[in-house]
Design goal:
The complex is a heterotrimer of chains A (144), B (299) and C (254). Chain A is mainly alpha-helical. Chain A has a single domain, classed as Arc Repressor Mutant, subunit A (Orthogonal Bundle), CATH 1.10.10. A two-stranded antiparallel sheet of chain A has the order 1-2. In chain A, strand 1 and strand 2 form a beta hairpin. Chain B has two domains: 215 residues, Rossmann fold; 73 residues, Alpha-Beta Plaits, CATH 3.30.70. Chain B contains ten helices and 14 strands. Chain B has a six-stranded mixed sheet, with helices on both faces. In chain B, a hairpin with a 2-residue loop joins strand 12 and strand 13. Chain B is elongated. Chain C has one domain. In chain C, helix 1 packs antiparallel against helix 4 and helix 4 runs antiparallel to helix 6. Classes of the chains: A mainly alpha (144), B alpha/beta (299), C mainly alpha (254). Chains in contact: A-B, B-C. Chains A and B meet through helix 2, helix 3 and helix 5 of A and helix 6, helix 7, helix 8, helix 9 and strand 14 of B.
């Protein structure tokens, strides 16, 4: 099973799913143009609400990560967008790695680092920011 | 004209002697949703469900299913034609065999789905010739579910569907429910005090305590709105009230102030920062915490 | 399908009742020759009081086969064992049956009135069957002891038994809608039956109006005329009890 959302986290399942789909695309488990599992079969497999899967797919389409082809199913977007995402994420990863290293040097523990990031993100995102972007940022903060 | 709400209660009350089992319950269940009805034992869940099916009459207030008055005998029969109920004890006829139970139930529903009956009979692996009283608890639940799902009902109401079941069986039951809703045109309303399963499959939720709905709404909405703001001070935490709306509960514990917010946590963070704390953390809140906090606050 | 469900619930009571009552009819007929041999031994004027009077009366009646059948069977079995089974057939089965499924029944798309009606009808059909079948045993077996008993008489007695027995069945059903357990309706109805029987025994002059008088078909036996008043009164009481059961059941909260 590619996706494994945790219902008890207090984080909406659809957000977790979105993030897991994006992660799958980054790591190459899902390639551009490849088909994603259907809404109904995925809901049945994960034993979650079909409306939740539908919502995740809709938001992913809104962000351009996937395409919903009427009658055919959901497909990963063609190269362009996804690749860009991968590049941006790689750069972000470098920044985060450097920051973590510097914080470690100051004696800040992993747990503290995590909480600092979450607090910062919650503080930032709760300001007037459009729903789509806000949710995307939030998901990054709650990963892991 | 189709009623968008499959179930609707307005200020529903039920009094037994001197006890108020339900005290002014108001909720709406939209069509096509999986609605989780959470509450402690004795909070009024079963009584409410019984009122939906005309088994118990309300003391006051309105209760409508498919737009029909559930407390009126003729409409109640009509409701029962289109809605199915599984009781907490998985009530069935002990002396009948599995096959007889199915045939008996099928006789009442012209829209009986033979294909679903056969599918679930295979999937649940139910022995057709065995008497109901000889079935294990899990098998009993599955049979109760089968006769409920195969009748082509628009609404499924289940009272604690997975109580007493092991995790594997629980998953099977939830899967059957999810499959059924995925097929379209069905609404599921289930009561539970298992937070995990509500978390897993429900898209809307109501928390009932002492006969009243204290929290209700879309589950994702709750997950996005509720936040816990944890504020750490240098010295003892001050005894403050927050002017921001949505503050549900404030807990002082030595140097830490814990604020549960049901919406608008960023304003709480602003107010918190003005107090000059050492640290301000914003954390997500699980449904379990929302439940425990809401129920405790009531008392 | 509700008929089937109620049949399953009351099946054993019905079959046992049928067996016992049919069996006793069978036995009574076959015992006739033996009883006749013992007749001269019955004391003439020794035992006093009501009991003595009854014994003498029974002996008197038994000289004739038809009298024997009436005094030894139709006056005894329907009013005793028969009443018991009438009560048993009316008890439980709606929501408080031992087989569970009360809430399941209530969740079916059937009105409460209909539930009571079908339950009552099932019980009444079973009572009728027991009455008719066991009564018909008598004309069927009588030739074996060299006598005849008219089928018509057996049927009439069976009907009287049925209508009067329906009173107790309906009463048990009514009480079943009041109490949620199986025992109280059963015991209360039996207690009422017992009280009525004692009343009959003590107050001989007014027992002409008792339900047991109708049940045994005494008027028919003695005069050949059907006890119309008794039959209508019993039917009316039974109907009223069933109506009460329907109203009660509809109004109840579960």
């Amino acid at each position: 099973m590619l996706f494994r959302p945790n219902p008890s986290l207090g984080v909406p399942i659809y957000l977790q799913l979105m993030e897991q789909v994006k992660h799958a695309i980054e790591t190459g488990a899902l390639r551009p143009g490849e088909q994603l599992p259907g809404i109904r079969p995925l809901a049945e497999e994960l034993v979650i609400n079909p409306n939740t899967v539908a919502k995740a797919y809709r938001e992913l389409e809104h962000e351009g990560v996937i395409e919903l082809r009427h009658g055919a199913g959901a497909f990963v977007s063609a190269a362009g967008r996804a690749k860009k995402g991968t590049d941006t994420l790689r750069a972000a990863q470098t920044i985060v790695a450097a920051a973590v290293e510097r914080l470690h040097a100051r004696g800040v523990t992993d747990e503290e680092i995590r909480r600092l990031f979450e607090a910062e993100l919650a503080g930032l995102t709760k300001a007037a920011v459009p729903a789509g972007a806000r949710n995307a940022k939030e998901k990054e903060g709650h990963r892991g | 004209m189709a009623d968008p709400h499959v179930i609707e209660t307005v200020d529903l009350c039920k009094r037994y002697g001197t006890t108020d089992a339900v005290r002014g319950l108001t909720l709406q269940v939209p069509a096509g949703s999986i609605y989780g009805f959470l509450g402690r034992n004795g909070a009024g869940k079963t009584t409410t469900i019984k009122m939906l099916f005309g088994m118990t009459r309300p003391t006051s207030g309105a209760v409508r299913v498919f737009g029909l008055a559930a407390d009126e005998s003729h409409s109640s029969v009509e409701i029962r034609r289109r809605a199915a109920f599984v009781s907490e004890d998985k009530d069935l006829y002990d002396h009948m065999t599995v096959e007889e139970m199915i045939r008996f139930t099928a006789a009442f529903f012209p829209r009986w789905r033979r294909d679903l009956e056969e599918r679930y009979l295979r999937a649940f692996d139910l022995p057709a010739g065995r008497k109901v009283k000889a079935l294990s608890r899990g098998m009993r639940t599955k049979l109760a579910l089968l006769v409920t799902l195969a009748r082509g009902a628009e609404l499924l109401v289940l009272d604690e569907p997975t109580s007493g079941l092991d995790p594997a069986m629980t998953e099977e039951v939830l899967q059957a429910l999810v499959q059924h809703v995925a097929g379209g045109d069905t609404t599921v309303f289930f009561s539970s005090h298992q937070i995990a399963e509500v978390d897993q499959i429900a898209d809307r939720v109501a928390i009932i305590d002492r006969g009243r709905a204290i929290v209700a709404g879309a589950l994702d909405d709750l997950r996005e709105r509720y936040r816990r703001v944890q504020i750490v001070f240098d010295g003892s935490a001050p005894d403050v009230t927050f002017r921001s709306p949505g503050v549900e509960r404030i807990e002082r514990n030595g140097r830490v102030l814990s604020v549960l917010s049901s919406g608008g946590a960023e304003r709480v963070v602003e107010e918190a920062r003005a107090l000059g704390p050492v640290a301000v953390d914003v954390l997500p809140v699980t449904l379990k915490e929302i439940f425990l906090e809401s129920v405790v606050t009531e008392s | 399908m509700l008929w089937y469900k109620f049949w399953l619930d009351t099946r054993w009571r019905f079959l046992i009742g049928l067996l016992l009552l049919g069996g006793s009819a069978f036995t009574i007929v076959l015992a006739y020759p033996r009883i006749m041999q013992l007749m001269p031994m019955v004391p003439q004027a020794d035992t006093g009081g009501e009991l003595g009077r009854r014994i003498r009366e029974a002996a008197e009646l038994s000289r004739d086969y038809r009298g024997y059948i009436w005094s030894q069977w139709f006056r005894q079995q329907p009013t005793q064992l028969g009443t018991l089974f009438a009560v048993l057939l009316g008890t439980g089965g709606l929501v408080s049956s031992a087989g569970g499924g009360g809430l399941f029944t209530l969740s079916l798309p059937v009105s409460r009135h209909r539930l009571v009606a079908i339950r009552a009808a099932t019980g009444l059909a079973e009572l009728l069957a027991i009455a008719v079948v066991s009564s018909l045993v008598i004309p069927m077996v009588s030739p074996a002891v060299g006598h005849t008993y008219s089928v018509g008489s057996a049927i009439v007695h069976a009907l009287c038994w049925f209508v009067a027995g329906a009173v107790f069945l309906s009463l048990a059903l009514l009480l079943s809608t009041v109490f949620s357990d199986v025992w109280r309706p059963l015991l209360l109805t039996c207690a009422i039956a017992f009280a009525l029987a004692c009343f009959d025994f003590v107050f001989r002059d007014v027992n002409h109006y008792s339900v047991f008088h109708v049940m045994s078909g005494e008027t028919y036996f003695r005069t050949g005329a059907l006890p119309w008043f008794g039959l209508f009164a019993s039917a009316a009481i039974a109907a009223a009890a069933l109506y009460g059961a329907a109203v009660n059941f509809s109004a109840r909260d579960f």
